[in-house]
């Protein structure tokens, strides 16, 4: 994430055109906006989910956890539907 912001400045050092000053201003503005939006984003999200951005989970662990959550949700929904059907049949 940070490399994508650093490499344009590295490329600018190798650039030898006449409009180097205007490109520098544009890159500084883009970097400032990127930094401000990242700070705003991480300040507004629920910090319990911060580990999803910077964690050591593997894809397989996430999928296994997601499958467990889906199966639990399916069981809950099925029991709610059964309860609703029983309620409608008795009334």
Descriptive tags:
single chain; 91 residues; mainly alpha
Polypeptide structure, described:
The model has no long low-confidence stretch (mean pLDDT 78). This protein starts with a helix and ends with a helix. The chain is elongated. The protein has 91 residues and is mainly alpha-helical. The protein has 3 helices and no strands. Helix 1 packs antiparallel against helix 2.
Brief account:
Helix content is 77%, strand content 0%.
Separation of the first and last Cα atoms:
59 Å
Radius of gyration: 25 Å
Q: What is the string of SSEs from the N terminus onward?
A: HHH
User: Helical amount among residues, as a percent range?
Assistant: over 70%
Q: Work out the helix count.
A: 3
- Overall, the morphology is elongated
Percent of residues in beta strands = under 5%
Q: What is the topological layout?
A:
Blueprint: H1 2-14, H2 20-44, H3 59-90
Helix pairs in contact: 1-2
């Amino acid at each position: 994430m940070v490399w994508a912001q650093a490499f344009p400045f590295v490329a600018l050092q190798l650039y030898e055109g006449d409009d180097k000053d205007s490109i520098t201003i544009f890159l500084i503005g883009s970097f400032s906006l990127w930094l401000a939006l990242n700070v705003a984003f991480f300040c507004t999200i629920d910090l319990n989910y911060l580990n999803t951005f910077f964690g050591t989970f593997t894809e397989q662990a996430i999928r296994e956890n997601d499958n467990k959550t889906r199966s639990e949700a399916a069981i809950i929904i099925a029991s709610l539907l059964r309860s609703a059907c029983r309620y409608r049949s008795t009334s």
